[in-house]
């Protein structure tokens, strides 16, 4: 094993938390039963690493095997770093019939042509997700395995999720993806978050949605708080309505865990009490960021409790509806209505 | 160590209520009564007693760098300080600072022997305390000079020739304190109501208890109230004409589950124009017979400004920020948090900020 592979393994073992080491190595599946027995998972990490290095030498493994181990770990624990969503546009006629082996060949060959040298590893996960690990190099150095980019794509969907990609590498990846999936373009979906599962569920609408019905039936309140029964009775109808509208906007039950949402506002300031500002030509520029451990739940609670007026404004309900969390809001062009606003990229 | 525990030294507890019942002259005015000085004669309603100033001088850029030692100033800016209020100090002398330095370092060493965990080395603990006066910060004749305290010590595994580093610093100040109150203090009391500290919590506690034992004072936490934070929004925005604030950032928290934090950052030029548009017309003020020599800012203008910002927000998100609480304000001039943490990034306007904070400290004091 050469130095770089050794360093990669050391870094990787340091990164994996102690309690996950055993399961990760099991999943990797390359250690024999005897070797597994000989590993002591209670010893300090540096000693553990030495032991593992010895085993790697014994088996004659290389960097390739280490990257495989890293990929196993990342697939099981994807919630590190920021994930960004992209959307493939304008599929060609045969986009639907792209299947796995074809995609793999095409992607590897296109990317190697565009960004030589590059080291690509593709793996299909159980839930039909294709995981791609890319180590980038340049004309002066071999691929850098210490800073790989990870890409997740579900074939037959237009969505791609990427983490750890620099702006220099972006055009190469975009081009390779577009060519190998038989689409014409790829664009930034303006959605980012720390939890891969959450942004994936949001985009693919895999959470409990609530649709408006002609005969609204009250959604069961989750936490019945005991309070004055007369107040309850009076407020029941409006509370019901608020809850219904909140759930229509954001969904019911467990919601995908988004952490933040950013709005760049460039609209004019309008207030009938303030003549100076209303007559001003330039927009009132500000940036608003909403942040929470689970943003969608917080917003739903705002709507249900009345802090946010219902019906929920499209700016907030666009987060789940359009599956994005970065918006630039400008006034309409020369239009009559001042109430509606358009979201633009 | 000197200890002052005679009954004369103990500050008398007299409250406004007591003063009214007995007709005897009060030994010392409580701060609340200063505002309602006329209340004893029944002229002014008692409600004016306990309130922040409703009107303030607009912040002017003070070339404080001309008056204050640059090194000392550098210690005060760009650090985040935790604020406390402190009651007037009995027999604190600005001339005794060297003695105080020695006493405090002996006190810390004594506390250390009792099990206080302080990173020290050597027999005396290698702790050096320095008290110094920050000359030139105060303008008003009644304000006492600012006192800066620093604790230096060697880190645990330091080489013998390595110099001591500052591990804790704090300062006591009074900027433009209410003159009526200051005059009403008996002699021998020095009023430095604002205490700023930065460093390990255990050292802060030790310093506070040394002060309490020697000067018969008491400390308490100083939150920066909602109103004060709004004042800072307005005062700092007002400075944009002379020196760019670079952004106006406000952080609100909404009480939902899980808690939602909203960061509202406004472009500085737009914030300035909005602020100018809510200012009262000077012509109107002249009509009302108000004195417009000094540009003064009223609380109504501050409230209108904040309301305008909230309504712009509501227009887009239909979410009323009044349902939440304003936690933090920051601009290029500094940042202030509700929990009582302040950072001054630009020394030009620090006098105004400190005036506001001194007032908060004086109001929060129990006596």
TrEMBL record, chain A:
The principal localisation class reads nucleus
Name the UniProt key words of this record, in alphabetical order: Centromere, Chromosome, Nucleus
Q: Which GO terms describe its cellular component?
A: chromosome, centromeric region; nucleoplasm
Q: Which family does it belong to?
A: Belongs to the CENP-N/CHL4 family.
**UniProt-listed PANTHER family:** CENTROMERE PROTEIN N
Q: Where in the cell is it found?
A: Chromosome, Centromere; Nucleus
Has keyword Nucleus? yes
Q: What is the protein's species of origin?
A: Collichthys lucidus (Big head croaker)
For this entry, the protein name equals: Centromere protein N
TrEMBL record, chain B:
Q: Which GO terms describe its cellular component?
A: chromosome, centromeric region; nucleus
Q: What are the entry keywords?
A: Centromere, Chromosome, Nucleus
Q: Which domain of life is it from?
A: Eukaryota
Transmembrane residue ranges: none
Q: Does the keyword Nucleus apply?
A: yes
Q: What is its main location?
A: nucleus
One Pfam family, short name = CENP-L
Intracellular or extracellular location(s) = Chromosome, Centromere; Nucleus
Q: Which InterPro entries match?
A: CENP-L
UniProt entry tagged with the keyword Nucleus: yes
* Similarity remark: Belongs to the CENP-L/IML3 family.
Q: Specify the protein name.
A: Centromere protein L
Organism of this sequence: Collichthys lucidus (Big head croaker)
């Amino acid at each position: 094993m050469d130095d770089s592979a050794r360093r990669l393994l050391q870094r990787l073992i340091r990164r994996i938390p102690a309690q996950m080491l055993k399961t990760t190595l099991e999943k990797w599946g390359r250690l024999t039963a005897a070797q597994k027995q000989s590993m002591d998972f209670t010893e300090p990490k540096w000693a553990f690493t030495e032991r593992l290095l010895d085993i790697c030498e014994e088996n004659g493994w290389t960097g390739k095997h280490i990257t495989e181990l890293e990929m196993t770990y990342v697939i099981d624990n994807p919630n590190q770093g920021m994930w960004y969503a992209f959307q493939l546009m304008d599929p060609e006629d045969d986009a639907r019939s792209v299947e796995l082996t074809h995609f793999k060949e095409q992607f590897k060959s296109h990317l190697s042509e565009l960004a030589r040298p590059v080291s690509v590893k593709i793996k299909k996960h159980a839930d039909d997700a294709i995981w791609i690990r890319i180590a980038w190099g340049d004309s002066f150095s071999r691929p850098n395995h210490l800073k790989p980019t990870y890409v997740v794509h579900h074939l037959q969907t237009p969505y791609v999720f990427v983490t750890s990609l620099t702006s220099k590498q972006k055009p190469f990846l975009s081009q390779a993806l577009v060519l190998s999936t038989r689409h014409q373009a790829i664009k930034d979906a303006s959605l980012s978050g720390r939890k891969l599962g959450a942004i994936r569920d949001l985009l693919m609408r895999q959470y409990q949605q609530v649709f408006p019905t002609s005969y609204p039936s009250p959604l069961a309140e989750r936490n019945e708080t005991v309070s004055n029964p007369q107040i309850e009775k009076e407020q029941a109808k409006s509370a019901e309505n608020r809850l219904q509208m909140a759930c229509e906007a954001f969904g019911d039950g467990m919601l995908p865990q988004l952490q933040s949402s950013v709005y760049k506002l460039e609209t004019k300031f309008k207030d009938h009490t303030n003549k100076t500002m209303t007559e001003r030509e330039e927009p009132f520029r500000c940036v608003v960021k909403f942040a929470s451990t689970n943003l969608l739940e917080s917003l739903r609670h705002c709507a249900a409790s009345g802090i946010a007026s219902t019906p929920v404004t499209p700016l907030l309900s666009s987060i789940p509806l359009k599956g994005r969390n970065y918006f630039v809001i400008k006034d309409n062009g020369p239009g009559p209505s001042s109430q509606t606003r358009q979201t633009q990229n | 160590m000197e200890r002052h525990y005679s009954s004369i030294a103990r500050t008398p507890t007299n409250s406004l209520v007591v003063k009214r019942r007995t007709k005897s002259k009060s030994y010392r005015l409580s701060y609340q009564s200063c505002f309602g000085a006329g209340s004893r004669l029944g002229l002014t309603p008692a409600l004016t007693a306990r309130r922040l100033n409703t009107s303030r001088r607009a912040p002017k850029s003070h070339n404080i760098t001309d008056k204050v030692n640059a090194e000392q100033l550098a210690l005060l800016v760009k650090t985040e300080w935790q604020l406390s209020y402190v009651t007037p100090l009995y027999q604190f002398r600005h001339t005794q600072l060297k003695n105080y330095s020695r006493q405090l370092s002996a006190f810390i060493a004594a506390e250390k022997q009792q099990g206080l965990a302080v990173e020290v080395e050597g027999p005396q603990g290698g702790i050096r305390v320095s008290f110094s006066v920050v000359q030139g910060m105060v303008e008003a004749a009644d304000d006492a000079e600012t006192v800066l305290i620093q604790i230096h010590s060697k880190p645990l595994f330091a080489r013998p020739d390595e110099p001591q580093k500052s591990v804790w610093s704090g300062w006591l100040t009074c900027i433009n304190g209410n003159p009526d109150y200051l005059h009403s203090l008996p002699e021998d009391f020095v009023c430095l109501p604002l205490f700023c500290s930065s460093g390990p919590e255990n050292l802060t506690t030790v310093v506070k208890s040394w002060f309490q034992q020697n000067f018969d004072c008491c400390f308490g936490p100083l939150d920066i109230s909602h109103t004060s934070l709004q004042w800072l929004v307005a005062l700092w925005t007002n400075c944009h004409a002379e020196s760019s604030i670079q952004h106006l950032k406000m952080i609100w928290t909404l009480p939902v589950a899980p808690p939602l934090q909203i960061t509202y950052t406004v472009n500085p030029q737009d914030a300035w124009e909005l602020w100018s548009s809510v200012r009262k017309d000077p012509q109107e003020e002249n009509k009302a017979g108000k004195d417009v020599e000094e540009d003064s800012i009223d609380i109504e203008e501050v409230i209108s400004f904040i309301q305008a910002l909230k309504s712009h927000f509501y227009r887009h998100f239909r979410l009323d920020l009044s349902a939440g609480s304003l936690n933090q304000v920051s601009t290029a001039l500094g940042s202030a948090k509700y929990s009582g943490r302040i950072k001054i990034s630009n020394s030009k306007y620090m006098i105004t900020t400190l005036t506001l904070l001194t007032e908060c400290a004086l109001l929060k004091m129990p006596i």
